Amino acid sequence: MQKPLDIAVVGSGLVGSLLAIYLRRQGHSVHVYDRSPDIRTITFSGRSINLAMSHRGWKALDGVGIGDEVRKIAIAMDKRAIHIGNEVKFQQYGKDGEAIYSISRGVLNRKMIDLAEAAGAIFHFEQKIWDVTLADATLHIGETERGEWTDIKHDMVFGADGAFSRIRHRMQRQSMFNYSQEFLEIGYKELNIPPNPDGSHKLDKNSFHIWPRGQYMLIALPNLDGSFTCTLFMPFEGENSFASLPDRQSVEAFFEKNFPDSIDVIPKLAEDFFKNPTSTLVTMKCFPWTFADKVALIGDACHAIVPFYGQGMNAGFEDITVLNECIETHGDDWVKIFSEYEKSRKPNADAIAELSYRNFMEMSSSTADEKFLLQKKIEKKFSAKYPEKWQPLYSRVTFSHRPYAEALAIGDKQNEIMAEVMAMPDIFEKWDSDAVEEMILDLLRKSPLDHS
Ligand SMILES: Cc1cc2nc3c(=O)[nH]c(=O)nc-3n(C[C@H](O)[C@H](O)[C@H](O)COP(=O)(O)OP(=O)(O)OC[C@H]3O[C@@H](n4cnc5c(N)ncnc54)[C@H](O)[C@@H]3O)c2cc1C
Ligand SMILES: NC(=O)C1=CN([C@@H]2O[C@H](COP(=O)(O)OP(=O)(O)OC[C@H]3O[C@@H](n4cnc5c(N)ncnc54)[C@H](OP(=O)(O)O)[C@@H]3O)[C@@H](O)[C@H]2O)C=CC1
Ligand SMILES: Nc1ccccc1C(=O)C[C@H](N)C(=O)O
Q1: How far is the CA of 105 from the centre of ligand 3 (A)?
Q2: Edge-to-edge strand order for the sheet containing 100-104?
Q3: E strand segments, 109-185
Q4: C-beta 276 within 6 A of ligand 1
Q5: Angle of the 404-422 helix axis to the 434-446 helix axis, nearest 10
């Protein structure tokens, strides 16, 4: 336990509500402010209905003993189901027993607010934070940006207010504060596959479904009620884009041509397509993340990434794990805690931003490529035989707690090795042979991966 402080958390999203639980466990009084109404009292309509949770997320939840509670509402997905034409191919994610987990964002967020409240955090909904005075951790709250504001002073403020953070907005005015934001030319739209009349799932429930089509793709994640939430990722403009689908007829024709096996399972295709918004995707980077011992950013507020690795929330939860480790090490020295926290997290946030960006190509193009699938098969076999010599990149990111930056660096070296292996003549015939194994061992001897 630390010396008790009066701490404000701005944002009651996934990261803010979990952080509130951790701060309560350290003995602080915690006030959480959110501009939106209490998500427990409204029908949830935010971005991405469901999310994939993996090892890093589970560790943060288990750290305050709420992992098992959340596991009850999660569905394991141990493989990709890749839909090409009318055929489905499966690609296992990791070792037997390893999986990523589909969870409803709304259900998870509601549960965490309940748990944070039970832990003693006090929530203030429909409170818009417009500004913060960094030097003394004072929040400025009001109905409108130009109207009257109320000032509320705390000992410390955490900005967990998402990709368009107002807390970060104020920090941006500091000299030596670096900031960048880049929107993708690809947007997304959510669609729905309802359950069968008996409540069962229409597609394999324990798979992450992908329809890879190069410049665009459709994905589907299972929900507990037997439905799937689908997301169409596609360019805003050009051929095969949202702009090229202006009406019911064009949408139906596009899906019939490009996703023929989805037609029967998405009954309200055109209706949902025009009812649901087309949303944007952004990568946001900044540094520093903290101001003295007064203000710190956490989660999407300091590292918004594109969603293609399913790691944004996981990375935000890992911020909390690391912050808590810094607290355990440095006691009440918050200057030290903040400085270690941002130094440790920044390179890893940058690494997962890069990996997430790259995973769009892997999902939308490579998964449709026989050579890619063969490469994954070779890596899986080699890693099963020599686990201490080779852990595939996907597992390093998803089923490990080692730093993302290490995964990126080692993954690049592994790719160089695999490029040589895949260039072997007749690789499709001899992928299972001793010659392939020998070649990998030889390349590893010449260029070790620096396993720790
Ligand atoms: C399409 C899509 C799919 C995704 N899929 C996954 C996935 O499968 N796995 C995964 O790990 N991650 C995924 N992510 C990323 C994940 O959604 C985010 O990383 C996560 O929501 C970040 O949580 P947060 O609490 O930091 O921010 P947010 O969830 O954005 O919460 C911020 C909160 O702050 C409040 N707020 C904002 N401004 C103010 C203000 N001025 N005053 C008061 N309150 C304010 C908001 O109302 C909100 O409640 C996905 C993202 C997208 C876009
Ligand atoms: N990494 C990524 O790719 C991410 C992408 N996104 C995308 O960005 C877009 C916006 O996301 P998100 O912020 O979640 O969406 P919201 O719809 O919640 O917010 C969008 C904007 O509307 C304003 N707003 C919303 N609600 C309120 C309110 N109650 N009071 C005052 N202003 C409000 C905010 O403006 P103001 O700034 O003035 O408060 C905010 O910047 C979506 O397309 C989403 O998918 C979002 C997060 C991460
Ligand atoms: N949650 C997501 C949301 C959007 C796009 C991808 C994901 C993923 O999780 C991808 C998964 N990790 C994969 O590599 O197959």
Answers
A1: 15
A2: 50-53, 100-104, 75-77
A3: 122-124, 129-133, 138-142, 149-153, 156-159, 178-183
A4: no
A5: 130
Pairing verdict, β 290-291 and 295-297 = antiparallel
Q: How far apart are CA 248 and CA 254, in angstroms?
A: 10
What is the model's pLDDT at position 451?
A: 54
Q: Exposed, middle or buried, 267 (CB in 10 Å: 0-12/13-18/19+)?
A: exposed
Q: Are strands 122-124 and 29-33 parallel, antiparallel or unpaired?
A: parallel
Residue 423 structure tokens = 């260039």
Nearest ligand to the CA atom of 314: 1
CA atoms of 210 and 82, how far apart (whole Å): 5
List Cα–Cα distances, 435 to 127, 378, 426, 431, in angstroms: 65, 12, 12, 8
What is the Cα–Cα distance from 401 to 80, expressed in whole angstroms?
A: 22
Judge whether 166 and 132 are in contact, CB under 8 Å.
Answer: yes
What was the ipTM of the complex prediction? Answer: 0.94
**Is residue 242 classed as helix, strand or coil in its secondary structure?**
coil
Measured distance CA(36)–CA(86) in Å, rounded: 43
Statement: residue 450 has pLDDT above 90: no
- Domain map (residue ranges) of the chain: 6-75+102-182+283-359, 186-275, 369-446
State the pTM of this model: 0.96
Q: What is the pLDDT of residues 385-419, one digit of tens each?
A: 999 999 999 999 999 999 999 999 999 999 999 99
Looking at the domain covering 6-75+102-182+283-359, what would its CATH class be? alpha beta
Rounded Cα distance, 59 and 322, in Å = 11
The β-bridge partners of 124 are 33
Burial tier of 223 (Cβ tally within 10 Å: 0-12, 13-18, 19+): buried
Calculate how far, in angstroms, residue 53's C-alpha sits from the geometric centre of ligand 3.
Answer: 10
**46 pLDDT higher than 70:** no
Given the CA of residue 167, which atom of ligand 1 is nearest to it?
A: 41
Any atom of ligand 3 within 6 Å of the Cβ of 77: no
Supply 372's token pair.
């890619």
Q: Side chain identity at 446, as an amino acid letter? A: K
Beta-carbon contacts of residue 53 (< 8 Å; ≥ 6 apart): 70, 74, 100, 101, 102, 103, 313, 314
- Using an 8 Å Cβ cutoff, are 114 and 23 in contact? no
Provide φ and ψ at 216, rounded to 5°: -145, 165
